[in-house]
Amino acid sequence: MNVKAKVYYCLTSVAIAMLTFAGNEANPDALELAPLPLPVEFKIDMDKPVPFDSSATVAVECPDKEAADWLAAHFKEWYGKDAPKVVSGKAPQALSSKLQAQSSEAYAITADASGVKIAARSLAGVRWAAYSLRQLAIAKRGTFKTEGRILPTMSISDKPHLGFRAVHLCWFPELRPQQIERAIRLAAFLKFNYAIIEPWGMYASEKHPWWHWPNPTMTKERIRSLVALGHDLGITLIPQVNAYGHASASRSCTIKHVALDFSPEYEPLFEPGGWNWCLSNPATRRVLREIIAEIHEDFGNPPYFHLGCDEAQPPTCPECRKSPYGDLVCKHISSLAEFVKSRGARAMIWHDMLLERGDPRWEGFVHSGSKDTAKLADTLPKDVIICDWQYSYKNMKEARIDWPTMAYFNEKGFSVAGCPWRNYNAMKPMADFIAKIGGFGLVETTWHHLRDSDWASMYRFASSAAWGTPVRGRRASPVTDIEFANVLRMAGHDMKVDDYLDAGNVNYQLPPSWWIDN
Ligand SMILES: [Zn+2]
After folding, report:
1. Which of 126, 222, 232, 432 is most buried, taking the most CB atoms under 10 A from its CB?
2. What is the reported pTM?
């Protein structure tokens, strides 16, 4: 009997993989390491470690000549004097043939006594390979301080399920900017390739300073530094400006308003109450264009721009009440989408105003529109990307396989992205459905839950769905502790965090007021 436990995973043997993912004969309780998200094909032997230190050589085959230099520079950053050497060259045929067809992001790795070898079609593939390796490398055993690292003997072949894989991050005033940076770094390590950033009144616009709260932390300098970081790590940052509802840049239940609370002279730009922009006021569109241009430029003019447009309210001002609201909204969004296009980007919007409340077809799905705004599904330009957020509100454990609202937008001719939140069981079937209909991608929304075990679950389940592989373990389990903790800590190391608040998945273990009050 073979005394070494071997872990082998492939798409057709999920059940077997789950059973054999732990232990060996000597220690059946032992756990196996695996990178997040789990690679499509993954074979590992933890009981045969190989050196991953300055004595090791990593051979890279990639048509992109920058790839080997990128890898060497990052090994140096991550491992210092213990960094393995990187050489560029031809990978063994057996490894190159493992590159899964049709994906420029595919990669394959072997690590054994003969060294570490990587094959990839692009720098993106080399990055994903590097993040898989990094998650599997641990310090050599038996020393006081780290003296180089080891890897398990392994073989990986991997490719993404969806080409567009994003997290949506909210830059709340309460959030430390360090948290946003960690979230971006972590998203890249989990092989998301886009991050949509919603400013929540924290964007330091120079053109319209009344559109941010005092002392905004989303400064131009910080944005540019995060954009450059994303460029290096393989994740493109996309700005968001809510161009219709959510004009207060605050959660509605708080009644805070980024403009009206401190600068009431801008009242005409908003509908009474302030939740919607006033769409009939020409000054509104001018202001929005100016903010869009400014923030798009600060983000380095990325190829997408999110215009929000969710959860808007019916019009209340006398001018907006004059004409059918669907026509006014369509003109407004189309004009801004056209403006975004003139800047070389595609507009994205949330979907819900395009589905009529009370339409029996959407029972059980998020739909916030009226009969009039639902006409937008026929009138909006088809190059607007519809971000269909479905959160399984009535059944958060839902694992449906059909997503009729996404099919609807797809049939109308739109590119559609599936957007889950905390409905973890729904993420993989949603990603599978998007792949099946040839949809645009997956956007994992995080809102005010970028913390605690929800953060781990949102990232683990969504990245796995976007790569088409199952999640190991439950929401909270020793597997989660190893997988997520390791990679979160790496993000912190790379940022050189030295504040207690920036360690772990929460700022405080206990509410600080406990000690002040007592
Ligand atoms: Zn109005």
Report:
1. 126
2. 0.95
